[in-house]
Protein 1
Amino acid sequence: MTEALLTVGAGVLGLSFIGLLGGALLQYASKAFKVDGNPLVDSIDALLPQTQCGQCGHPGCKPYAEAIANGEAINRCPPGGQETVDRLANLLGVESLPLDADETTADQDLVAVIIEEECIGCTKCIQACPVDAIIGAAKLMHTVIVDDCTGCDLCVDPCPVDCIDMVPRPKAPDYWMPQPPNVISSDRFGQIGMQHG
Amino acid sequence: MAEYQIRRCDRQLEGGIHPETHKDLSTTEPCVFVDDPKRLVFPIHFSGGGPGEALVAVGDTVSQGTPIIKCQSGIIHVASRAGTVIDITDHAITHPSANQSASIIIEPSGLKEQSYLDPLVWPFDADSLRNRAIEAGILGLGGAGFPSFKKWSDGTQTLIINAAECEPYLTADDTLMRIDTHSMIRGACMLSRTLDIKTIVIGIEDNKPEALEAIEDALKESRSDCFFDIVLLDTKYPSGSERHLVWLTLGIEVPTGSRSVELGVIVHNPGTLAALSRAIDGKPITDRIVTLTGEALKAPKNVIAPIGTPINHLIEATDTSPSSLTSITVGGPMMGYAVTEFTAGITKTTNCLLARDVEIPPESPCIRCGACATVCPIRLQPQQMVFALKGGSLDLAVHEGLGDCIECAACNAVCPSHIPLAEWFRLGRFEVRDQANEQRLASEARERFEARNARLERIAQEQEAKRAARKAKTADALEKARKAREQTA
């Protein structure tokens, strides 16, 4: 009888010990390897174009990324275009949706340009720019740093003298893309004869 | 006599093809100078070395060697002949973009006015040599046009002369090695001495016995203390690709995403080294050897032509009427591109003008034969990459190894369905470049957005703190006043 009790007691104690040990390990791991924030938000944010334009209805790309992580629709980013929607669908493992934007706003690479003669130096556009791409001071002319402009057009509305235009992003003078059909001659000049093999 | 050895390469290029070389088409005739053309065209942004700015204005008189374009990388391009700048305007250019671009047009005067640099006298250090390469406009003359001075880092151990010239039809390097051997050897020795390189490797395909003989003769006369390791490669395309040449000659595999320079190996085209030798004597690049070849030309040959010579002038130099051709390939038949505007001037990277009369076979569906994968020298699966690109999935193509593709077009040459695989890859690689750029801009924008938010928050907090301090101060003062009132009362 005692022997049986001992056996059962040893079993119970042993298993409790293993349970406690496991619990302690889990407790330690949850503290030591704690991940700050939602990692999914960062992966989503990395796919968004970072124009910070607010066309999705959120004040910036990060907030939209958080909203997507919480279940909002993935097709509300016109600057990202259909490509971004597809990538988000791929990341989240959901069905891709058609982009929620009219043809004119989608997929245009624009930048803001201040017509400098007309600028009155009110600094309203500087305050509106989400990415600090406009420089200037009160009562002094402002200008857009073209390389830093994301084309969000948030500076256009606040301008009291309407001196900001959205224009296509200028290309570097040596920017080029090969133009089909002249991309590579082995496609266009027929097959090369082979000696052997 | 310089020490040298000739050995056969003991490594085999994996993949690759054996195309008909057609090299004797242009090597049977001697290499000649062409007459000066009526006008010379120098694209400001596409002469090699990045976007540039014009150093001359319309109406200026220039001598042979007068700087006319300064590029962002520092590289200076000079006028190849004395004459007058008659226009700076958009003009057709010898470039795969097939666009017009701002160009300087010079009308040669036929005078022999020269304005060269002072000769560089030994001993000089690596920096003086780099400066000289910049002033003399030394670019990779093999076709890529990479500014040579950027390769010359101090930890370099080996210089490889890329004399493989594996593209069919091309014989410009072969010709240079036959007629300008001493300059090439001297340039290689000068570079090696300044960078303290001990071994110079010459990788040459075994279909150039005349060039090999000329190199041997030159080495016997040379007094260089460098050791020359001449490696005879099997004639197989693309053994002249930089990565493959480094592996074939040295047994070093250049990892994905890095360059041979990072491994202490620099690879130069023979023409680049010959140009460097002349630059040390003070002469910037004004001319280059161009192969004019192809079955559609009546008298194919190699010529020495001034940089900027219009293509139609060179076609005429082969007794052929430019109007008989609709399009000409610039570069070899494998990796070259087509140019249809014959008024465009040749640049420093134009090594060959190829005119062929070939029917373009129509494209048929892929039959999954795997021939492209067998010949791919990078061991990629070209058919998979093309499926990905045709399906619009750039990410998948990159996953399949698009970033490692060297665009050698061996897959094109063997595809029984005539699918233009290399065209897809070249376009795809440009899209990858654009996308990487976009991503860089996006992450910069994110940083600025976050910095701005942090700043706004900090300002708000500071204002809040100030308000709280002011409030406390007022409360304090009120309290004091109350106490004072109580005391008086």
Protein 2
Amino acid sequence: MPESLSRAVRWDTVVGALLIVLLLLSFGCVDGFGNALNLSFLLGNTLPIALIALPMTLLVVSGEIDLSVASTAGLSGAVMGRLWNEGMAIETIVPLCLLLGVCCGLVNGLLVTRLGLPSLAVTIGTLAAYRGIAQIVLGSDAVTDFPTQYLDFAAGRIGDTFLPQAFLPFLVLLAVAVVALHATPFGRSLFAIGASEEAARFAGIRVRRQKLVLFVLTGLMASLTGVFWALHYASARYDNATGLELSVVAAVLLGGIDFDGGRGTLGGAIAGVFLLGALQNVMSLLNVSAQSQIVVTGVLLVVSVLGPRVARQISVARAGRRAADPTPTP
Amino acid sequence: MTHPSDTGPAPVLALEDISKSFGAVRALRDVSLRLFPGEVHALAGENGAGKSTLIKTLAGVHRPDAGRVLLDGEPVVFHGPGDARDAGIAVIYQEPTLFPDLSIAENIFMGRQPRRAFGRIDHRATRAATEALMRRLGVDLDPDRPARGLSIADQQIVEIAKALSFEARVLVMDEPTAALTGSEVARLFGVVRTLRDQGAAVLFISHRLEEIFQICRRVTTLRDGGLISSEPLDGMTEDDLVRRMVGRDLDELYPKQDVTAGEVALSVKRLTREGVFTDISFEVRRGEIVGLAGLVGAGRTEVARAVFGIDRWDAGGVEVDGRALTNGAPSTAMAAGLALVPEDRRAQGLVMGMSIERNIGLTGLRTTVRAGLMDRGAERSRSLDWAVRLQVKYSRIADAVSTLSGGNQQKVVLAKWLATGPGVLIVDEPTRGIDVGTKAEVHRLLSQLAADGVAVLMISSDLPEILGMADRVLVMHEGRLTAEIPRAEATEETVMAAATGRAAA
């Protein structure tokens, strides 16, 4: 079947297959990979990337990007630590942090949609600004004495399994994001905006509003991740999650989301996230030096930009041959 | 003018039994063509007939699978566009590609400017050479003007001058008039006649048949990659030519039905966008086709964009069925029953990488929804229904629209908007660059829509189309409405007079 052939070279499928191969190899050949403790480390360390990758995927599909996510997460953690030190209840602090994330996203979104600035430039600016505010808020303190039931939730596992407790809420969010991107009119409009903003506007799609919504959602998820991070590692510091935006963007691109917008699947992006996470975990187990790990991640980034293009060219060539066949028109 | 015949001058360029396939598609089958010096030769055929492949073979872009290219009777092989150019063959495309920030002279001599000592560019010599070229063409363009801001017509002149500077003896013009207004076409034809009289061979491609008859002496017709005929135009009628192109008799090109106009559907009141258009007021009634004519740049497209909400207006207002539209909001215009088929189908009408199904589906994101989710079944049947109704030729509804020919792409844009069931349809250049068969289909469709009670506003630079289809003609000149002419009084003269600002309003 030509159709299954051309589907088979879709990049997200390739990434999914790579992930499975890596997991099988790791279970078979890497000492210490398969035990529950390591697997729960792997998932727990990958969750922050996965959480932010959800809205980031939607954002990149629509042709924009947000590099300030790690700083937003850090700022949320810092504000959380400061307010806790001030004696506020954690049940009040968390909603305030999420509201702060919404505001961070709103600032990015308004700068991009109202002033028409490129999101890459805007969010590099707010990347620095939000991190700076975080340092002003908390200085060099580290707040660690959060209530134990929250720390236990963020670091604990479900029963005897290796699954972190936070994994279930993540699965719910993943399901929501998959449906939003691939099954709603909203998601459909994001693909149209990313592929051709002008044509989307001429089709009556409210381009600026959709983008603003995405930036706000991204800010919200980034602050949620910041809260999770502080609890998971039992440490709220101004420099929490520094550099996380690169892992998120690398994973999303690795998962086949086109940097130019308009193409990709959330499944591919999540496969990219866990491929990157598993690879880093395996390299650590194999005592690969941190420097070498960075080189591998860098190479992966380049591959992730090249790979989907090559895969697409193969499908286009196949489709061209198929179109050249004298098939009857309906 | 010399009259080449069998005993006359030899062809400067000849194609003999050229065949070219792409995969299983045979784009050209045993096609021959002879171009004589001092002759304008038409190449006719519908979209997909093989015209583009033939041109690209002449231009050295494609190498033929079989057959020979003869230059002055000698077989030649072009390994690339550079070879063809060096052999004196130049192709002028519909949309020229100049460097906008360089002057006309710099564009013409890009990369081979006359030099002075130490390799410095000799601006004076460049300028003088450009002036000489313009004199040869008989046009008055300042060599120092930057290319930015030149009309498409002027840009084409620059391209032609560039071709001349390469000593081109064969000039291929691929739909050069598609984006030109009447007076610009006249000037272009003046240039073409000048070149012809200087001994150049010109291959001319146009979807406008009257232009072919106006300027060409012979015509070669292609259909489905095969050669149908190569013959003098003397004694042929437009119907004869159409029959050769489409292989059957074509119903009338402008099948306008008489419809009694109903209620006012679209009402535009004193609409103004500063610096773009001023004080535009008009109405379109149900069942009416109103033509909006004018020169390119008169502000017609800009009015349509503002009415639909793509751009904001500064003063005035728009009503659809008596309901005022929100300024700058296409979604509310759509909800009110307004549809706009935009001028640029590739950038504005379609998302090129998306499938036919999804492109048509884009206007149904509010309607083909069940419980907040896309109803894929409803979306597919809506898209299929309209693709079939408009007879879009495709192999699968899930194929990208970029795989379709221009005419079929335009049908997809129409399908996308007709699927919304509009009460008011604005079409901007609905048949630009599409073949005559599809053009007649689009006209029949517009006529039928009007008969069904849709109010149609048709912007077009194709004057025969305006005259053939419109019940009334509105004319714009420099951002203002200068005339409203009823069908009975609309002629090329009255419309052009108003479009060029010569009318006594």
Protein 3
Amino acid sequence: MAVTPPPLRPDGWLLDITESDDGRSVVLWTKEQRTGRVRRTAVEYRPPFLVAGTRSDLSLLARRLTDHPDVHSATLGSGRPSLFDHRSRPVLSVVPTRNPARRALARSVDALGGYERFSLYDVDLGPPQLYHLAHDLYPFAPVVGRPPTLRATEPPETIDYSPPPLRIARLEVHLVGERRGRIPPPDGRIGAVRVGETTLEGPEEELLRALVDELARTDPDVLLTNGGDAFDLPWLYRRAAACGLSSAEFPLGRERVPFRPSRPARSFESYGRVLYRSASYPLPGRFHIDRENSFLYDDAEVAGLIDAARLSRLSLATVVRQSPGTCFTAMEMARALELGAHVPWKKNRPEGFRRADHLVAADRGGVIFLPPVGVHDHVDEFDFASLYPHIMVTKNLSTETLECRCCPASPVRAPGLGYRSCTRRVGLIPRTLAPLLERRLAYKAALKRPGVPPEEAARLKRRVKMLKWILVTAFGYQGYRNARFGRIECHEAINAYARDLLARLALEAERAGYSVLHGIVDSLWLRPNDPEHPPDPEAFAARMSERFGLPLGYEGRYRWLVFLPAVTTGLGVPNRYYGYYEHGEFKLRGIGARRHDTTGLVRRFEAEVLALFRTARDAEGVRALLPRALARADLFASEVRAGTWPVDELLIGHRIGQAPEAFVTFTNSVAALRQLKEAGAVRGPGEFVRFVLLDRRSRSFRHRVRPAELLEGNERYDVGAYLEILARSAETLLAPLGVGREELRARWGAEPAPERDEYRSPEGLGQRRLEGSGPERRY
Amino acid sequence: MGRTAPTYHQALEERMKRWDEFARLLTSPEERAAFEMVRTGARRYVAQATYVGSPDLLESILLSVLTDLAVRIRAEPSTATSRR
């Protein structure tokens, strides 16, 4: 038996590694345990990237690179850079003279090979990331020794660890005579800055200098802002420059940085939506977290982000601004390098040719039933925890283990598709996922232990949330064509296993005395055939978990559950329902409260109806409360009609899908955007615009809406439009109880929405004609 | 998103648009109501049809419509026969 050495007492923590300005080294930021001071150490580090090809091509390349000004060295050796390599092959290791030249150099090497003779590895990993991996280090590692001879005292996967104590300070900039959230005038001067518990005020230049002094005095590790990337930091820099301060005189990090973003703002598309990300302003040695520019922060907070940084070897500054997918990819890369493989720069693995009927059979998602519209009771809900990641692990689904050459007779085959899984080697994806799944279960188990202190529980919950997001992306990235270790066949295989599983589970549920009410991919809603003697749900879950080798959880029993219909067909919609569990919790999906663009009016109305239904014991109870719900709706309608509803609760949110000048039709958003532009605020695609409807029929952009930023508070809103919105909301919730929009409109004497004006000038600029689209083709 | 083949649901809705043309020349309310029933039947078994993954769209639609009708007939055996 191996003797475990006693755990080392750490001298401090490694907080972060950043790239140095000189292009030849990285900077290690360490925090001393004893004093809490943060130390900066620059270490020379120029990691190579690898080029694989034939020996003759590589020696030719090596000769050509020797006099290249960007090349420090090019050394020929051998290795197995790809996960698919079973044998060693020639590899050229290229060290650039300066780290920032990596990518450009790699591009010219790729071009020299005619984009086909060479495959390149480790090109787009950052030097800090590679430094971590080459030295067994990771962000927030407890360490002994001093840089550059740091040693982590525990591996990054350690589940029970104590994170370093971080000093977190809020930062908030206020302009003279302006309320935050309004459009700042272009020359707006800074009147006050709140940092931590202190608020600094005074003449601008003195104030900015005082801010630097205050940061030096309190020395926070994290600056937390609400919109810092979009407003606070660029404004501080802009005003500092206007006051004649240099970047050396005005460092907000622990090192000076130029007064410009490290990455400009951009709009991009994800899952069919156009999204917007502000420019980013990281501060070396100090973390700047902008809650509004972070997808993960709200769910994960610092505790979850630290966990993700440790596992991915990405700086907290990167993790906070990137998607969970980036974290997962970095975790895969780390695991690949640990296995002795390298990270391909461009995935050179196109999808294979196949027959059309095979494509139809393979390119499918999970099972999604149409639920029966109406109010139901005695419903038990079950779902598999992290089903897809578990399938990837148990079925060994990974790019290099699917249809491998070593196991032609493998018995592990995707149902209906026949894709084989390797039985001899464990794949990269399962190797990356298994510890994450284990970790999530460990945190969940720790949460259930009695007597967990509330702070610890909060931290654990954040870590669980963080891991959940990462696990969710793991599946999607199998199907993404640019994902480094993704492969579409894996994506298909996972779905095939999941479909088969749900079908078998539904059958088992019927045998156990349930009937299937609804099912989505990894969840089932079941109703006992005999409500007086229902099956024991916990026992059923345990039996099925054992049977299928995957953890099926019992979510709880609903007192009542309402499945909502589609407006167009009247049939159930898989993901629109609301219900109340016996353990006193709501579950809401697809109703206004879950959407970003919902008005305060609708939120309030829904909250009141739900509070009313909360008292119902069963489906009958819900039906009996309908008259009272309608009475609430009438009350809301009469207040809206009176014109007294506060306008800030009437704000409608809309995500802009294209550049404002690209809009062809005149919509509410266009009207709002034009007003904002007039006031000097330009919005890009993916950003939100929020406005109150003043007159939905108006053709004038000034009279149609009023954007949130320009609200005075005494606007007269469009009563008819808001009655319509209220009617739609009431219909959403109450349609299964027999309430329709028409009936509500009649009840409130509201006019229906105006017919859309079909006429457009044929000379209009930017008009696109869509020939033969839609059913209204006439001859 | 980046799918290659349209989902069964998408293919079905595309076909339903063609059915609209059929419905335009149904002139009696009874016929139109009956047609609505057929159309609802076609949409009711999306999950099951997706599960089959048949390359023949019409096969899946017909199975769905027939199953829906058979369920209705079984639920009301007396009315179904008395109309004969």
Protein 4
Amino acid sequence: MLRLEEVHAHYGTIHALRGVNLEVKEGQIVCLIGANGAGKSSTLMAVSGLLRLSAGRIVFEGDDLIDIPSHSIVGRGISQVPEGRRIFSKLTVLENLEMGAYTRTDADRIRQDLDRVFGLFPILKERRIQTGGTLSGGEQQMLAIGRALMARPRLLLMDEPSLGLAPKFVETIFEVIREINAHGTTILLVEQNANMALSIATKGYVMESGQIVLEDDATSLMANKDVQKAYLGG
Amino acid sequence: MLLQQLINGLTLGSVYALIALGYTMVYGIIELINFAHGEIYMLGAYMGIVTFGLLSTLHLISPDSVVALLLMMVVAMLFCGACGVTMERVAYRPLRGASRLSPLISALGVSIFLQNFVMLAQGPRDKGFPNLFAGGGIDLPGARISAIQIFIMATSVMMMIGLQLLVHRTKIGKAMRATAQDMQMACMVGINVDRVISVTFLVGSILAGVAGILVGMYYGLINFFIGYIAGIKAFTAAVLGGIGKIQGAMLGGLLLGLIESLGAGYISSEYKDVFAFAILIVVLIFRPSGLLGEDISKRV
């Protein structure tokens, strides 16, 4: 479904991605783990078209994404829950969700998806006329996920969805991720919480200084001694 | 006397507000002070005269009619809108991503270009602007609202209500607010940011074009330099209200108009322009985020 081939990218003079190879198959939850600054977020930004590649290819469902303007990527079926949530804090909850469906014109199905998001996160329905900035951290994360779902993505990119959340919320979020995947959405998940992430993932990649250094089934990665020592706190 | 000054102040203020909206909307989205915005207002006034002249020479419709007035406004709106969009394409878009100083210098360049263009094309002298509201008005105890003042305030209020509806009720308006907050995220949900920026310039320029016609009729004289002083005053209004805030521009415009008019009435009309700039300096020193602006530190 999604394939990155020898992807290189720079932030100014910093060489953030140094030949990333990665594949996500339809229906999977693929998890990308690694230390801060390893290039995980940059990888997602490259897929969303917001980080220009200096070399390499990103292929989604057979099409090269490189020539597509970044605002058209979501129309192809890829949406992102970015790091730090980045909800539109001065827009209402409902408007945030509407923005998620910005490129769509199928009003009936947008309404269905809105009901689905409100079904997943009933609190968002209660707060739909509040501005996004008034929500708590956990609620904002729900809104960010809801907004990404409103695009009806086939591939959902999630960047640290559990960061800074209370343990109770973390569990909810991971349950929701599993549920979204069960409904047929493929997921590429970046997480600090490697234990939780690997426990729901099909496959995992380990990233270090802009490169993939290890890839394996999620269960094998969890059993891997080096991975345990470096990322699983054991 | 007080009532009269208040009426005059509100008239002037509503025009400042119209122009200030263009500054504040553009700043809200791309953080550029578009110093050429006053020139768009000046172009609007000239388009009014040109349209009026054409109507008179062609004898198509009576140039004194309401239809003529509407035509003048529509032509000015279309022309100014097109100018604003072109200006952004040519002078600002290629500089996006450059240092903040570059588009600012580019804006000054556009401003000088437009002033000189109009000076050469239309001549350097004052031109009389037709007042289609000569006479008429309402007499109040101790004051008088002229027909043109009513027209200016009514038009401004209508434009501002229209803008509020656009920004809060339409898809493109919501996209504008989203883009102003987080351009990258806006792009990620599929908003074509370039288009949103074009629309912002379009809307701001249309408002300025209307303001040009209104002021032209109010004062009866225009020249190629009127955009400069009006631009700086509207900029002051935008800063006073809190730059980047739409309601701020409206509030700032009205306040500035009132202060100027009361100052002119009670202190000295010679010092009229001084009040505006004194306010600008005071606001910049004591409350740079403006009346409705949040603390700069909170934004970061």
